Structure formats: structure tokens, C-alpha cells
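quick q for whoever's on today - can somebody do inverse folding on this one?? i tried earlier but teh output was garbage lol. C-alpha cells:
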């Protein structure tokens, strides 16, 4: 056999081998690219979207806790409302991104559970915020403080009245505060800075009765300074019964019927917020976070599988079938 046909045959075999190797290389590169695209274009963005939802849920919980902080101001509360609204927008945006990247039925199942619980959490959070805004409308972010202050002031004035009664009965000098601006109630009214329309509108009435109450002390002292006989004692008793006691009743009526009533109204709202937080928001938050953890785990597993398949394809590309 001539050398030419042998050479042609040999080159043909080499060409076929090169073709096979080239096809294997082309196929292997395609498989590697496919798995890398799966990781870069689907799995990693899905992980990022799920992690974003997880992180921002924590921001919502922080804002809600700040709204329960009785030392916070109305201005600070307004900032928390804005933070909660922005957080929900970001979570829903991340959820939309994730939904486009769902890889299988299991991911879809977990994601749907996440969104069901998230929507329930959001509804409860909106109700919580509405309750907080009611506190803002009352101008009372710390109802416990207001109620405690008023209780202390009322008790102090009852003690003051007891001392006045002792002066009347025992004919002794009155040792209480005579100036209405310097007693606990007078100081409290002067320093009152809550923007509660009901309390503010009643303040002048309260001041009038309070001043009238204190004005009975100089009148009683004046009578006793002139004489402490039986006639004077009767006159003093008349002042106490007809002026001091009615004025005190009106002061107490204003404190209990207006100031304390507004405080109790705010306290009921705060208690409702606390109940919502403990009975609804906290359990629902925990459910959402647990499901997000499950979703993250499932997506991470998918990414690992895609990476392992990519590694296997790379090995196949390197060493052949």
C-alpha cells in the first residue's frame, strides 16, 4: 500500500479524535457556564433577597419597641412610623425579587408561608401603629407618669386639707403652703407641657378653684388673728365648710374627672399596644423569622447543589466522559 493513502488515513483519524475532543470541550464548557449562570443569576440573588427580608424585619421590631418606650417623644414616634413604612416597602420589594427566582416547588411552598405570615404581621403592626398614633393625638406618650404625678399631687392636697382642718379645729397655726403657685399642684400646672387639648382647656377652671381653695387660708388666719373665741371658731368653721371644702371638691373633680381620666384613656391604649406586641406581633415575628431561616437554608442548599454540579461538569470537561 502506498504511503499517501496511509497518511491520509492517519490524518483522518487524528481529525476525528480532535473533533471528538473539541465536542467534549464545547459540551463541558456549556455545562460549566450553565451551572455558573444558575449560581450567579438565580441562587445568589435569591439568597440576597431572602437575607434582605430577614434583616429588615429586625428593623421593624426595633422600631416597634421604640414606640413602647414611654420616654420617647411624639417627634421620635413620627420617625418610627416612617421607618416602619419604609421597611415594609423594602421587604415587599425583596419579596417580589425573590418570587421571580423561585427554583422549585419546595421553595415556592416556603415562600408562600413566609408571605402569609408576613402579611398577618404587617396587619398587626399597622394596628399597633394606629394605637400609637392615638397616644400622639392625646399628647400623652407616658400615661403611667401622668397618672402617678396626679395621684401624688391629689394625695398631697388631701394632706394639705387635713392640716387646714387641724388649724380650724385645734386653733393652731397653719403649716401648709399658702401660695397656690408654690404647692405641688401649682408647680405641676406651671410646668405642664403635654399637648392634651382636654386637659389644657380645663386648666383655667382648675386654677380658679385651686386659687379659691388657697385663698381660704388667709381668711381663716385673719379671723383667728383677731380672736380665738367660740364665735371666731364658728366663723372659721363656716369658711372651711362653705368655701374650703367646696373648692377642694371642685379641685378633685377636675383632677379625677379630666386629668386622670385622660391619663387612664392613654393608659388603656398603651396596654392595648403592649398586648398586641406580646400576643400577636412577637409570635408572628418569630414565625416569619423561622420561615425565612428555612427559606434561606433551602436556597443555600440549591446553590450548593448547583456549585457541585458545576464542579462535576468542570471535571468532566477536563478529563472527558
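ok took a stab at it. sequence:
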Amino acid at each position: 500500500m502506498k504511503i499517501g493513502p496511509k497518511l491520509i488515513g492517519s490524518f483522518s483519524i487524528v481529525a476525528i479524535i480532535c473533533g471528538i475532543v473539541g465536542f467534549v470541550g464545547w459540551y463541558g464548557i456549556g455545562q460549566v457556564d450553565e451551572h455558573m449562570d444558575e449560581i450567579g443569576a438565580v441562587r445568589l440573588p435569591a439568597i440576597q433577597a431572602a437575607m434582605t427580608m430577614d434583616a429588615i424585619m429586625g428593623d421593624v421590631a426595633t422600631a416597634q419597641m421604640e414606640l413602647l418606650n414611654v420616654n420617647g417623644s411624639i417627634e421620635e414616634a413620627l420617625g418610627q412610623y416612617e421607618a416602619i413604612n419604609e421597611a415594609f416597602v423594602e421587604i415587599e420589594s425583596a419579596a417580589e425579587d425573590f418570587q421571580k427566582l423561585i427554583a422549585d416547588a419546595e421553595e415556592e411552598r416556603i415562600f408562600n408561608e413566609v408571605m402569609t405570615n408576613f402579611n398577618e404581621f404587617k396587619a398587626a403592626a399597622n394596628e399597633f401603629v394606629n394605637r400609637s398614633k392615638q397616644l400622639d393625638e392625646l399628647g400623652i406618650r407616658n400615661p403611667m407618669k401622668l397618672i402617678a404625678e396626679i395621684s401624688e399631687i391629689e394625695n398631697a392636697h388631701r394632706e394639705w386639707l387635713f392640716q387646714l382642718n387641724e388649724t380650724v379645729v385645734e386653733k393652731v397655726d397653719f403649716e401648709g403652703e399658702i401660695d397656690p403657685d408654690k404647692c405641688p399642684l401649682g408647680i405641676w400646672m406651671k410646668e405642664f407641657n403635654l399637648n392634651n387639648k382636654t386637659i389644657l382647656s380645663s386648666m383655667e377652671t382648675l386654677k380658679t378653684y385651686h386659687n379659691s381653695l388657697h385663698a381660704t387660708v388667709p381668711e381663716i388666719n385673719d379671723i383667728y388673728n383677731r380672736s380665738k373665741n367660740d364665735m371666731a371658731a364658728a366663723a372659721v368653721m363656716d369658711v372651711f365648710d362653705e368655701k374650703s371644702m367646696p373648692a377642694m371638691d371642685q379641685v378633685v373633680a377636675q383632677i379625677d374627672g379630666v386629668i386622670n381620666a385622660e391619663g387612664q384613656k392613654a393608659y388603656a391604649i398603651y396596654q392595648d399596644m403592649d398586648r398586641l406586641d406580646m400576643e400577636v406581633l412577637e409570635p408572628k415575628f418569630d414565625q416569619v423569622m423561622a420561615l425565612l431561616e428555612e427559606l434561606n437554608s433551602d436556597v443555600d442548599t440549591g446553590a450548593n447543589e448547583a456549585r457541585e454540579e458545576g464542579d462535576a461538569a468542570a471535571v468532566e470537561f477536563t478529563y472527558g466522559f
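fwiw The first helix runs from residue 3 to 67. also Residues 21-36, 308-315 have pLDDT under 50 and may be disordered. so keep that in mind when u check it
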